[in-house]
Amino acid sequence: MAKNGVLSANQKKALTALLSHSTVATAAEACALGERTVTRYLSNPTFKAELRARQDAIVSSVTAALVGLAGGSVKTLRDILESKTASDAVKCRAALGWLAQMRQSVELADLAERVAALEEQLGAAKR
Fold this sequence. Notes:
By secondary structure, this protein is mainly α. The protein has two domains: about 1-70; about 85-125. It contains five helices and no strands. The longest helix has about 40 residues, at about 90-125.
Protein backbone atom coordinates (compact mmCIF):
# COMPACT_ATOMS: atom_id res chain seq x y z
CA MET A 1 0.00 0.00 0.00
CA ALA A 2 0.94 3.63 -0.16
CA LYS A 3 3.39 4.10 2.67
CA ASN A 4 4.05 7.64 3.83
CA GLY A 5 2.05 8.92 0.86
CA VAL A 6 4.31 7.16 -1.64
CA LEU A 7 2.75 4.79 -4.14
CA SER A 8 4.35 1.45 -4.90
CA ALA A 9 5.38 0.46 -8.41
CA ASN A 10 2.31 -1.79 -8.68
CA GLN A 11 0.02 1.02 -7.56
CA LYS A 12 1.51 3.29 -10.22
CA LYS A 13 0.88 0.59 -12.84
CA ALA A 14 -2.68 0.22 -11.60
CA LEU A 15 -3.23 4.00 -11.82
CA THR A 16 -2.08 4.07 -15.42
CA ALA A 17 -4.26 1.09 -16.29
CA LEU A 18 -7.34 2.54 -14.57
CA LEU A 19 -6.98 5.72 -16.59
CA SER A 20 -7.03 3.86 -19.89
CA HIS A 21 -9.53 1.06 -19.26
CA SER A 22 -13.25 1.23 -18.60
CA THR A 23 -13.48 -1.38 -15.84
CA VAL A 24 -11.42 -2.48 -12.87
CA ALA A 25 -11.28 -5.98 -14.32
CA THR A 26 -9.77 -4.87 -17.65
CA ALA A 27 -7.41 -2.46 -15.89
CA ALA A 28 -6.23 -5.23 -13.56
CA GLU A 29 -5.65 -7.54 -16.50
CA ALA A 30 -3.76 -4.83 -18.40
CA CYS A 31 -1.35 -4.20 -15.52
CA ALA A 32 -1.02 -7.89 -14.61
CA LEU A 33 -2.50 -7.46 -11.14
CA GLY A 34 -5.43 -9.20 -9.54
CA GLU A 35 -8.79 -7.50 -9.65
CA ARG A 36 -9.07 -7.72 -5.86
CA THR A 37 -5.69 -6.03 -5.53
CA VAL A 38 -6.73 -3.11 -7.74
CA THR A 39 -10.05 -2.87 -5.88
CA ARG A 40 -8.13 -2.76 -2.60
CA TYR A 41 -5.94 0.02 -3.98
CA LEU A 42 -9.10 2.00 -4.75
CA SER A 43 -9.99 2.03 -1.06
CA ASN A 44 -6.63 3.61 -0.16
CA PRO A 45 -7.00 7.41 0.35
CA THR A 46 -3.57 8.23 -1.12
CA PHE A 47 -4.22 6.08 -4.19
CA LYS A 48 -7.71 7.56 -4.65
CA ALA A 49 -6.37 11.10 -4.35
CA GLU A 50 -3.70 10.46 -6.98
CA LEU A 51 -6.22 8.82 -9.30
CA ARG A 52 -8.56 11.80 -8.91
CA ALA A 53 -5.73 14.25 -9.57
CA ARG A 54 -4.75 12.43 -12.75
CA GLN A 55 -8.38 12.22 -13.88
CA ASP A 56 -8.80 15.95 -13.26
CA ALA A 57 -5.69 16.67 -15.33
CA ILE A 58 -7.08 14.62 -18.22
CA VAL A 59 -10.46 16.37 -18.02
CA SER A 60 -8.73 19.76 -18.00
CA SER A 61 -6.73 18.83 -21.07
CA VAL A 62 -9.80 17.60 -22.94
CA THR A 63 -11.74 20.71 -21.93
CA ALA A 64 -8.99 22.95 -23.26
CA ALA A 65 -9.02 21.07 -26.57
CA LEU A 66 -12.80 21.41 -26.83
CA VAL A 67 -12.64 25.13 -26.09
CA GLY A 68 -10.20 25.43 -28.98
CA LEU A 69 -12.81 23.89 -31.28
CA ALA A 70 -15.63 26.18 -30.17
CA GLY A 71 -15.17 28.81 -32.88
CA GLY A 72 -15.20 26.25 -35.66
CA SER A 73 -18.21 24.52 -34.15
CA VAL A 74 -20.18 27.76 -34.03
CA LYS A 75 -19.27 28.46 -37.65
CA THR A 76 -20.40 24.97 -38.67
CA LEU A 77 -23.74 25.44 -36.92
CA ARG A 78 -24.19 28.85 -38.53
CA ASP A 79 -23.38 27.41 -41.95
CA ILE A 80 -25.94 24.63 -41.48
CA LEU A 81 -28.64 27.00 -40.23
CA GLU A 82 -28.04 29.41 -43.12
CA SER A 83 -27.61 26.71 -45.76
CA LYS A 84 -29.89 26.80 -48.79
CA THR A 85 -29.39 23.07 -49.35
CA ALA A 86 -29.66 21.62 -45.83
CA SER A 87 -33.02 20.04 -45.08
CA ASP A 88 -35.34 21.53 -42.50
CA ALA A 89 -34.80 18.42 -40.35
CA VAL A 90 -31.02 18.96 -40.31
CA LYS A 91 -31.47 22.66 -39.51
CA CYS A 92 -33.90 21.77 -36.74
CA ARG A 93 -31.47 19.27 -35.17
CA ALA A 94 -28.65 21.80 -35.38
CA ALA A 95 -30.77 24.49 -33.74
CA LEU A 96 -32.02 22.16 -31.00
CA GLY A 97 -28.49 20.97 -30.31
CA TRP A 98 -27.28 24.54 -30.04
CA LEU A 99 -30.15 25.50 -27.72
CA ALA A 100 -29.49 22.48 -25.49
CA GLN A 101 -25.80 23.38 -25.22
CA MET A 102 -26.60 27.00 -24.42
CA ARG A 103 -29.04 25.95 -21.69
CA GLN A 104 -26.48 23.59 -20.22
CA SER A 105 -23.78 26.27 -20.33
CA VAL A 106 -26.02 28.74 -18.50
CA GLU A 107 -26.93 26.14 -15.89
CA LEU A 108 -23.28 25.22 -15.32
CA ALA A 109 -22.25 28.87 -15.02
CA ASP A 110 -25.06 29.43 -12.52
CA LEU A 111 -24.06 26.35 -10.55
CA ALA A 112 -20.41 27.45 -10.50
CA GLU A 113 -21.43 30.86 -9.13
CA ARG A 114 -23.57 29.26 -6.45
CA VAL A 115 -20.80 26.86 -5.40
CA ALA A 116 -18.28 29.72 -5.26
CA ALA A 117 -20.67 31.72 -3.05
CA LEU A 118 -21.16 28.75 -0.73
CA GLU A 119 -17.42 28.15 -0.53
CA GLU A 120 -16.91 31.83 0.31
CA GLN A 121 -19.54 31.64 3.05
CA LEU A 122 -18.00 28.47 4.41
CA GLY A 123 -14.55 30.05 4.42
CA ALA A 124 -15.87 33.13 6.22
CA ALA A 125 -17.61 30.97 8.83
CA LYS A 126 -14.33 29.12 9.57
CA ARG A 127 -12.44 32.35 10.27
